[in-house]
Design goal:
Length: 80
């Protein structure tokens, strides 16, 4: 999985920042931190763009809030 970053790293980035994100601001923060060419994987999916990862994390209930602003639902993050 060369040039891939785990979704946990993105969640950790969000938690560490303490910021509230929109889809657009999270995609920008992810690409700034990990680069525009990086692909993302999780425990159950792989080869995702930043936007696809965001959609995946939303579908898995990993965020609290709505489209106007969300943070990580820390109780929904697996710890492995």
């Amino acid at each position: 999985m060369e040039n891939q970053t785990h979704g946990h790293d993105v969640l950790d980035l969000m938690i560490a920042s303490g910021a509230t994100y929109t889809r657009a601001s999270l995609a920008a923060a992810i690409q700034e931190k990990f680069g525009p060419e990086v692909r993302y994987h999780t425990c159950s999916a792989d080869d995702m763009t930043a936007e696809q990862l965001i959609e995946f994390l939303i579908s898995r209930g990993k965020f609290l809030g709505d489209e106007t602003g969300f943070t990580v639902a820390t109780d929904r993050v697996c710890q492995h």
